[in-house]
Amino acid sequence: MRRTQVLVAGGGPVGATAAYRLAQAGIDVLLVEVLPFCPEDMRASTMHPPTLDMMAELGLLEELESQGLRAPSYHYRNRRSGDIIEFDLTELSDISKHPYRLQCEQFKLSRLLTTKLEALKPGSVNFQHRVLAYDQDADGVTVYVETPMAIETIRADFLIAADGSNSTIRKWTRTEFEGFTYPERFLTLSTRYPVEQHFDRLASVNYVADATEWYVLLKVPEFWRILVPTDINTTDDELLSESYKDAVFKRLLGDDRPIETSHRTLYRVHQRVVKEFCHGRVLLAGDAAHLNNPLGGFGMNSGIHDVWNLTTKLKDIYLNGANWQAETERYGRQRRTIAQSFVQAQTIENKQTLEAARSAERSPQELKMQEIAETPALRRQYLMRQSMYESLQQEAGIN
Ligand SMILES: Cc1cc2nc3c(=O)[nH]c(=O)nc-3n(C[C@H](O)[C@H](O)[C@H](O)COP(=O)(O)OP(=O)(O)OC[C@H]3O[C@@H](n4cnc5c(N)ncnc54)[C@H](O)[C@@H]3O)c2cc1C
Question: Whose CA is nearest to atom 14 of ligand 1?
Answer without folding.
Answer: 44
